[in-house]
Amino acid sequence: MEYMPIGRRGELDDKINYLPLDDSEFTDFLTGLVSNIFRLQSAEVIIPILGWFIASTLKPKILQRHGGFPILFVAGTRGAGKSSVVKLFWRLFGFADTDGARLLSVTATNFMLLKLFSATWSIPIVFDEFKIHDLEPGARKSFTRYLRRCYNSEVEHRGRADLSSTEFSLTSPVAVVGEDCPTEAALQERMIPVEIPAGQLDADKRAAFELVRELPLAAFCNRFVPFIMDVDFDTEMQRAEDLVKNVLSNSPVESDRIFKNLSTIVFGFNQFVKFTEVMQVAENDIDLKIIQPVVSTLKDRLCGPAGQGSKVALDQMIHHLSILAERDQLVANQDYVYQPSTETIAIRLDSCLAVFRRHVRETQLPIEILEVGSYKRQLKESKSRNGYVVDESRPVRFGEVSKRAVVLDVVGLENTGIDAKGFQVYRIGQESPTEDENEKVDG
Fold it and tell me: Has this prediction a pTM greater than 0.85?
């Protein structure tokens, strides 16, 4: 098998090479891989990475069935071994292992990013050193915009000097390695987050890494690609979806996109297991039951234990408003009021939003900001599904004055993972209105 570029020179040319091995050599290689790959890190780290890389070979089919293909995010502090581990998986797909070989840079020029995001359909592209604080705001927005758009392979157009345009389909399966994991809600729904904890690289993991690194990893695709091309895709994906549905039966996810992304990871891992069985390697050594806690962990990481879905812009704004209230940057009984008898918080949306926007601008906080109409829509959606919004516009007493405010339930906020304690801290001499006073206002 060979890498065959199509059309003009591609960004992957001269970077990919598939190594041929005879039957006995390949069996020895695959045995060594299976024996050590799960020793590199915990199952919660290895299974999502392995599942994603394997599934990337069928991105066009997954895109057609699910409408999108997730971005893999591998996060960890310095020295956790995240880049080294991901590079091993990248080598399985033919990428060179030379002293000068590096993962791709998130700080590449905008045009280079465009070419990389459109370089391939089913060969993974891996970016390294994603650090929010290290990117200029414009560069960060550009990179995350490409990530969102490559999820469902959108098309980007670039103008030419002759007034014609060039079309770039953002089709590459993309993985990102870095110290930070994006908090943007639109990205969280489109990604598989993997966290590698620091300080857990013991002697066994280091030994496994050295053994895997010395294997001829570029030989993997020579046998795997013909196998995966012959898979009954719809049957196998349905099997993966049923497994995810079964694992999450007691705590289903609201987001259909997150469910499909989890199914993609399970599908990929299942195909790796089936491949080892077909090759008669370690058929009894891989137990599919180990994937169940991995699915639950990924779901909790994306949705929280209650499965509400990734945090939307409204959730993030209220979280930061609570912090601003605790710092007295919001004024109690003027911008917000805490009602202890009903465990609710009333906020004046317009005034709080103005303070929040100023805070984001001054601190360069990498967070999504919406127009007031979009926040009102999310308030309405939260109320309709019995979330933490009690009322979108209710007369509430702020000191001596009655004002219309958004009323939020403290318990509902906490169940969503939003710490509301900042709203409950009042300075000495300040008191929130009693429930009786607010009942008079309602009346």
Answer: no
